[in-house]
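#lab-general

N.A. 3:47 PM
ok so I finally got the sequence cleaned up, no stray characters, all 198 residues accounted for. can someone with queue access submit it? mine expired

B.Y. 3:52 PM
send it over

N.A. 3:53 PM
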Amino acid sequence: MTVTVHPGADVAADAELGEGTVVWHLAQVREGARLGRECVVGRGAYVGTGVRVGDRCKIQNHALVYEPAVLGDGVFVGPAAVLTNDRHPRAVRPDGGLKAAADWDAVGVVCAEGASVGAGAVCVAPVRVGRWALVAAGSVVTRDVPDHALVAGSPARRIGWVGRAGVPLEERDGAWWCPSTGARHVVDGEVLREEEPA
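B.Y. 4:20 PM
back already:
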């Protein structure tokens, strides 16, 4: 497999792109960013300096992934979604001078394996989106999202659970079932875990 970079994309010379990764027109991948195998970076997307992206991730058109974000394997970042990095955003210092990079400490968003951030959603760093969790389109995430949680709204709140297929789970017989895969899940306190097949 080869790496494909559209002629209109801007990929830093020291960025690392895994085999089979595709970077589309007008996308920018900054210095020191590392993308795994078989990733897709959509048109106009931005991947910040030093961002770490696992294998088989999709960063859709016009999504903004600011450093120091970390995306696990199989993460989906929807069109125009934003992963922020500044806890106290200001253009200027208290004395009125223009802020420079040395004037702030970047904080990142972590998206664990299989997590999805829907179109136009904003994750306000520092937050973690758990394994196989799903952030609904247009949501504003201001606190950590548990594994397998389905969250929506502003601020985002858990409204259900999802399995690996991204389909809302159905509750029956004291467990949560995926209508797509048939996988069984159990809730332990505030944590949902998928049971191993018998």
